[in-house]
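Below is a concrete protein record.
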Amino acid sequence: MDEITRLTDLIKNFSFADCAAGNLGYDRVLLQLFGFLGHGKSSFINTCKYVLEDGEYWNYTDSKKSEGGDTKTRVTYPLTDTLTLVDNRGCSVMNDYETAEIFAQLANLLPLDEGVEWSKGFGLGERIIEAEADVKSSDFIYPIFVFSVKQGLPSQEMSMIKELLETARDLTEMFPTVVLTHKTSGNLREMKDKFENMGAERVFALENFTPEDNIKTRGRHEEVLKIFCEIIKDIEFRFQKGVGDPEKKRQGRKKKLLKFIHEREIKKKDEELERQRMREKTLHEEKAELQRNKNNGGECTVS
């Protein structure tokens, strides 16, 4: 048996029954893809299915469109009986509203295979509560952060992404695996170093297959298969160390996220109050300056 066949069989045959402690109430792994718009999440899904199914290339996600960030629905793409990829809606800017939506998707607190609309205020919290009956506790969550090498990573954005990855870890209890796409379109070594410095334990790089470039090569197949083999090792380790009751874990994620939303709204109100205070201070200073100018202009000297 060659290496490609061995790795493929390992992935396709993986189930929670293989874990030392059994399934512990879980029946599926949701491989949650998240990140910025247009960084290759959808093309990565097409690539994974192409490699594991080993047939013709199919554009399952309409990736030519979604490469520009067109994904507006959380769509599931089963890879095996146990592993399912989730194409979550990406964000254009990592502000508090969009990151809260990303965390709600990652924590699996919103329905799958439905449209995603960003909510301001407490709208997200209301949607989370409404979705209670549609969310499965038996889904084990594994986060995968997808980032394009060709987009570059300015130093000023690193702290923001580091915070995003750490929050994803706190919610899912798994530090996200990082998949770097377009690996030949930038400084790959520098990009890997940056993510490792943020605490990423596993950083993989690849060139996605596309409708225009889908010639099968051993190297590209092995790159994809090795990602999933390492993910399976992570999952088996977590089950060995104990993952806890599925429903209690989901409720814990919900409490963390509702707290995040509450603190976000308090922060927004405090910032608005501070802006209002600064506007009033500026207006007061301008009035005082105007009055001083009037007083100075009204003075006259008698000789």
In short: The first strand starts at residue 28 and ends at 34. The CA atoms of residues 144 and 177 lie 5 Å apart.
